[in-house]
UniProtKB/TrEMBL annotation:
SUPFAM superfamilies: Glyceraldehyde-3-phosphate dehydrogenase-like, C-terminal domain, NAD(P)-binding Rossmann-fold domains. SMART domains: Semialdhyde_dh. The active site is at 161. The keyword NADP applies. It catalyses: N-acetyl-L-glutamate 5-semialdehyde + phosphate + NADP(+) = N-acetyl-L-glutamyl 5-phosphate + NADPH + H(+). Belongs to the NAGSA dehydrogenase family. Type 1 subfamily. Keywords: Amino-acid biosynthesis, Arginine biosynthesis, Cytoplasm, NADP, Oxidoreductase. This is N-acetyl-gamma-glutamyl-phosphate reductase. Catalyzes the NADPH-dependent reduction of N-acetyl-5-glutamyl phosphate to yield N-acetyl-L-glutamate 5-semialdehyde.
Amino acid sequence: MQRPFGKRNDRSMTYNIAILGASGYTGAELTRLILGHPDMTLVALTGERKAGRAMAEVYPFLRGFDLPGLCRIEDVDFSGVDLAFCALPHATSQSVIKGLPRDLKVVDLSADFRLRDPEAYAKWYGKPHDAPELQAEAVYGLTEFYRDQIRTARLVAGTGCNAATGQYAIRPLLAAGVIDPDEIIINLITGVSGAGRSLKENLLHAEMSEGANAYAIGSTHRHLGEFDQEFSAIAGRPVSVQFTPHLAPMNRGILATVYVHGHAQAIYEALEQAYRDEPFIQMLPFGASPSTHDVRGSNYVHVGVAPDRRAGRASVFVALDNLCKGSSGQALQNANLMLGVKETTGLLGAALFP
C-alpha cells in the first residue's frame, strides 16, 4: 500500500528521500542536486565510516544547508521514506537492498543489478549474485531507452558511466541498421572521480597529474558486460565491441570517440532522429566534436559525428559528466519518473564553465 506522503495532492507536499552512502562522490552529487529539487526532501543520509558526522564536515561545500546528519543504515526509519538512492560500493548494494522494505522504491547506483543474467554477473564480477530474485526485477536505468519501464519500476539499476557514454553513441545506430555491428571501437577518456573517493595510490596528485593511461585493457573492463547485454539485445545477435578506457588528470567528465563502419550522414541522421525530443541530449552540427568542459556539472550529453577520410567510416563523439548524467543525475532523472514528477525537475541547470 502506498504511504499517504507518497501521494501529493498539493505543491506543499514533497517526497521523502534517503541517500544510502551519502559520504561518497555520487552520494554528495545526489545531495547537491536534490537540494535544488522542489518536490524532494532529504530525510536520511547514511555513511557507515562517517556516521555521527555532519555532511558539511565531510563536504564543506554543503555548509549552510539544513541536512540530516550521517548515520548508519540500520538507524534509518524507512517507514517515512518514499524512495532511497543506494550509492554504496559494488557487492554491498545487493545485500543492503535485499533487506529494505519491499514497498520502498530504490534507485541503485552500483553495478549490482545492471546485468540481468546471473551467470553474466558472476563472470564479470567474480562471485555469485546475492539477490538473484531482485536482479530479475531490476530495470536498467538508461533513461532515454527504458523510460516506460522505469515509470512503473520499484528497483532501477543505474548504468555504468562509461557504459552510458558508449550506448548514447551506438544504440540508435544499431537500431537503425546504419553501422556494421562487428566493427565498433570505443576509445574513452574519463576523469578520476569515476574511481570513487577511497584512497588509491595511483590517484594521488603526484602519480596522476601530467599524464594519462589506458586501464582495464583487452577484455577486463566490467562495463563490457553492459555493452554485450544491451547491444546484443538490440541487434538480435551477439555483438562484441572493442573498448579501451583511459584515465585522464581531470576531476569530472567522459569523452568517448567511437569508430564505426557506415555512412557519416546516415549515422548523423539516425542519432538526430533518436534524440530530437530528448531534453538532455544535444546534437552538435555535423562535423563538430564536443568537449567535457561544456557538460561539466550538468545532466546534459553532447553528441557529434564526423566523417573519416576513408569512405564508409565515421567517428561518433559523446561527452558527459560522469558524476551527473553518468550516475547521480541519471539516478535523479529516473527517480522523477518513478515518483510521477516531471522528468527534468532539478536537472536543468547549465554546465559549470570554465
